[in-house]
Amino acid sequence: MQKITCSAPGKIYLFGEHAVVYGESAICCAVDLRTQVQACLSDTVQISSVLGDTGIDHDRYPYVSSVVEKMSEITDIKGIKLCIKSDIPVGSGLGSSAAVTIATIQALNLLFECGLGAEDIATLGHSIEKKIQGVASSTDTYVSTMGGVVMVPLKKKLHIIDCGIVIGNTGKFSSTRQLVSNVAQLKKNYPKIIDPILSTIGRISLTGEKMVAKKEYESIGVLMNINQGLLDAIGVSSPELADLIYAARNAGAYSAKITGAGGGGCMVALTPLSEAEQVASAITRVGGKAIITKVTEHGVRVEH
């Protein structure tokens, strides 16, 4: 029986979450935490993971179910068995939904020989996220497809970052849709205050682009910390995130900030390579789950 296994990476933001929803610049990096989807032909649609076994199920597997339905419009899918494994915590701001969406699209694309290119996959993935979340930036699906460090919305590839990356997970689930909606309401109520904050976050990304090229990690860190202050101002931080952020900074990180929608989920710290273990220990001590990882050039790929 023919099987295809594809994987796609999660992501972190250096700068720009929330502002990117309104067309501002952001810098996003694919990280070496991956979601793997194995696809093989079957008589019926079967989806399985640690969440359980089911058919098309928009409650348990909204993204995978939507991919199967969408790909069925492109090719004749009579039945398919999809087995999902993931390193990426769900609902944590690391792009878990984008990774499973992109890995599933590519697995079906190759199994059924649909001929979709990377740009097609990223675009299709974004349309599915948008349908499910209501409002979704194309960033997560694009970075998960292409890998590397990407400046959006220009989709410009930047130099790879080779310092330490430590992710701290609060273990608290957060709803991207709810947080994006909360910021939209603030923006509507106080446009003269919130609009300049969002455009400043965009300007931080533009300034940071030059520092990424020069590998000036301490300067990138200063800007990430400023970005965090602005995210706090628009109400997307939380006490749990703040604990992890300050623990990481005090342990020697260049910077620490929310990554993703906020409200829970994860923060990310940039560290000297020699300090990564120390920063991870500090995050663990204050109740977070620490993951030491690195930026990866590899987007969606076939696993052999």
What's the CATH C level of the largest domain?
Alpha Beta
Estimate the strand proportion.
Answer: 15-25%
Shape: globular
N/C terminus separation: 15 Å
The figure for the number of domains is: 2
> Percent range for helical residues?
40-55%
Secondary structure tally, helices: 9
Structural class: alpha+beta
Q: Would you report the number of β strands?
A: 12
Mean pLDDT: 94
The main β sheet shows up as: 8 strands, mixed
Radius of gyration: 19 Å
Secondary structure topology:
Elements: E1 3-15, E2 26-41, E3 45-49, E4 52-54, H1 62-74, E5 80-86, H2 96-111, H3 118-133, H4 139-146, E6 149-152, E7 156-158, E8 164-169, H5 176-189, H6 191-214, H7 217-233, H8 239-250, E9 255-258, E10 266-271, H9 276-285, E11 289-293, E12 301-302
Parallel strand pairs: 3-5
Antiparallel strand pairs: 1-2, 1-12, 2-5, 2-6, 3-4, 6-7, 8-10, 8-11, 9-10
Helix pairs in contact: 1-2, 1-3, 2-3, 2-4, 3-4, 5-6, 6-7, 8-9
Family: Belongs to the GHMP kinase family. Mevalonate kinase subfamily.
Main location: cytoplasm
Active site: 140
Characteristics:
4-stranded antiparallel β-sheet; transferase; 9 helices; alpha+beta; Ribosomal Protein S5, domain 2; cytoplasm; isoprene biosynthesis; Alpha-Beta Plaits; 8-stranded mixed β-sheet; 2 domains
Give the gist of this structure:
The protein has nine helices and twelve strands. The protein is an alpha+beta fold and 304 residues long. The protein has two domains: 3-158 and 297-302, Ribosomal Protein S5, domain 2, CATH 3.30.230; 164-293, Alpha-Beta Plaits, CATH 3.30.70.890.
